[in-house]
Amino acid sequence: MLLKSELHFAPRRSFHDAWAFILLLLFSGTFTGIGIARIYSISLDKSKTNGLVNELIKGLGFNLAISMVLNMMMFCLYSVAPKLVIYTSLFLMPLCCLILGFVVDQRGMIATAGLSLFLSVLVWLYIRGHIDIIAQLFSTTSSMLNSHIFALLFNFLLLIVLNGTIGVCMAFSFGEKEDIGNAIGTALIFSIFWINSFFMYLFDVFTAGIITGELLKKTSSERDDREASVAGRALGNMAYAMGSVAFGALIIAVIKTLRYLVNSKRQRSVRSDEQPGAFEMVILCMADCTLSLVESYVHVLNKFTFSYLAITGDSYRKAINDSFELLSKKENVAFKSFVAAEYTQNFLFMIQTILIVGLNIGYVVFRKKSDPVVIAAIFGGVLSILLTFQFCNVMSSGTLALSYLQIMAPQNVKNYDINLHKALATIQHGKNYDVVSYEQTNVESTERVE
To answer: Where are the transmembrane segments (predicted)?
Structure first.
């Protein structure tokens, strides 16, 4: 690593881990082609199809408008009242789980609410000493993202349309239901998991690129950085990172496929006429729990890695090592802000999902419950929930990127938001930290300039 006090974008990046991206194209392209061929072989009533398409357009427009309004409100809350968001999430998450548990399944409502309360207490104990700093980090991150909200929305719509189109085409390649359990069916499931994870992490890279580009546009001493398009440069860096993202998504896809196979085995054992052995069920349950923990660990690893990778342009394996090595060298709130962001995101996603479902029920009732309207509401609602889920996730990627930038380029962060810089630098250098003396002596922040 090179050590400098100010960060600049690398003039040229390399496309790392190309093999993973090529392999992803081969898997997804093969099944997508099979699915398209089967779609064209299906005969459809054109009059019914046209009516359904019209309703789908209306339903999608309605749900996109809902998502836009809700996510704008979410960003405004993070910008204006981040501490309110944090405390509300900690206190109201158990109550929401209790209400949802009562509505969905009365038998599990107490256990669900109790677990949520336990998690809320753990999160509060973990972040309580730095809630003010985390709130300031949330506020700055949301303000930076808010200034490029339309670029974020356009990019995600593009990715979700590609993901949805490819996913639908791949789903049609399933063929008969009994084919799902064979090797080809397993490969198809693996490909769907891979492509979905790829697009999800790709948006994380774009989000971190927006944060980095906005910071450099306002603070860099280089003319090229100040005059560059933030969204355009983030899009270009995202394209260069596709190979590394495909590599990280591959690991998650393998774990998810193994979980799918284990759960399929459990379901077949329960449904079969022969009663499954207790030992077999215990082994399958333990395997599922272990894979679930490994999946969560790798997912968190990927979130940190891709936020760092968006700044440096490194390969996936190098970014894993360097990102955690960088965090281990200096005291920071990256882990605590990530935990707080994930928890608040889950709470806001739960609230927004309830609102989306309720508004779509009202939409169906208002449109008199015809079959095309119901289908359009379901499809549009699912798309809206997916959009909301990913938009809720941008806060964790954004705060991680800003945490890395504080360590790698404190001078840029200071020039952008001196209050945030002071708060984060106080953690790194102690309560006796002085901005003036730091400016004169600090040469220890890292920067990738390859």
So the answer is: 20-40, 60-80, 86-104, 109-127, 147-172, 184-203, 238-258, 347-366, 373-391
pLDDT of 443 reads 42
pLDDT of residue 151: 84
Whole-number Å distance between alpha carbons of 112 and 108:
6
Residues whose CB falls within 8 Å of the CB of residue 336, separated by 6 or more in sequence, listed in order: 126, 127, 130, 134
Report yes or no on 2 lying in a domain. Answer: no
At 103 the pLDDT is 66
CA distance 438 to 413: 13
CB 288 within 8 A of CB 205: no
* Phi, psi dihedral angles at 421 (to 5 degrees): -60, -45
In a domain, 448, yes or no: no
Residue with tokens 């339309």: 150
> DSSP string covering 321-342, please?
HHHHHHHHHS--SHHHHHHHHH
The reported pLDDT for the residue numbered 65 is 84
DSSP string, 123-181: HHHHHGGGHHHHHHHHHHHHHHHHTTHHHHHHHHHHHHHHHHHHHHHHHHTT-SGGGGG
User: With b meaning 16 or more CB within 10 Å and e meaning fewer, what string describes 83-115?
Assistant: eebbebbbebbbebbbebbeeeeeeebeebbee
- The answer to whether 13 and 237 have CB atoms below 8 angstroms apart is yes
pTM: 0.84
Q: How far apart are CA 414 and CA 225, in angstroms?
A: 17
3-state secondary structure of 107: helix
pLDDT score, position 38: 77
Tokens 């700055």, located at residue = 140
The b/e string for 272-295 (b: 16+ C-beta within 10 A; e otherwise) is eeeeeeeeeeeebeebbeebeeeb
**Does residue 140 belong to any structural domain of this protein?**
yes
Per-residue model confidence (pLDDT) at position 254: 95
For 322, the token pair is 């360097």
The pLDDT tens digits for 293-343 are: 999 999 999 999 999 999 888 899 999 988 888 887 776 788 888 898 888
- What spatial distance separates the first Cα and last Cα of the chain, rounded to whole Å? 10
Q: For residue 450, what pLDDT is reported?
A: 38
Domain, as residue range, for 32 = 13-442
> Per the structure, how many domains does the chain have?
1
Report the distance separating Cα 148 and Cα 212, nearest Å: 12
The answer as to whether 43 is a domain residue is yes
Which residues of the chain are under the pLDDT cut of 70? 1-12, 42-53, 101-109, 174-181, 225, 269-277, 331, 369-371, 428-450
